[in-house]
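Pasting as-is:
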Amino acid sequence: MARAKKKPDRKERTFLVVVDESEEMDVALRFACRRAKATGGRVALFYVIEPADFGHWIAVEDLMEKERRMVAEETLTRYSDTVIEQTGVLPILHIREGERREALLKLIEEEPSISILVLAMGSGRGGPGPLIAALTGKFYKRLTVPMTIVPGRLTEEGLDAVT
């Protein structure tokens, strides 16, 4: 088994938030912003462009890829504004292509500045969410940073109480 790379000795914590379209992602982002501000850390935003399979329609696939990249950049810009408003510091931005879980684990492995992964738990019937299920289940051995799981229904008052 490969040994994990030693993280550099840093005073600044980097809180990584996976950006997606879920309702609970906003809670994870607000939590990460508050923790970063309270500890003198930073927020990193991570967006995964998941591949679409169009097989032999290369021109369509190229166009779709450009559109997905534009959506990723626009989404990160929107959430970057939120991070700046809440922390006063520019976030670190990461965009990767591929399957979300694998891209996340690879980013954490390759980027030594990431200190803590912040995810919010789904509040619906679907359970905690696919990333949380994977990272607390069969893939927990591959996670090399602490993970904070925030309840997806945490209110502003609840956030105030825990941050």
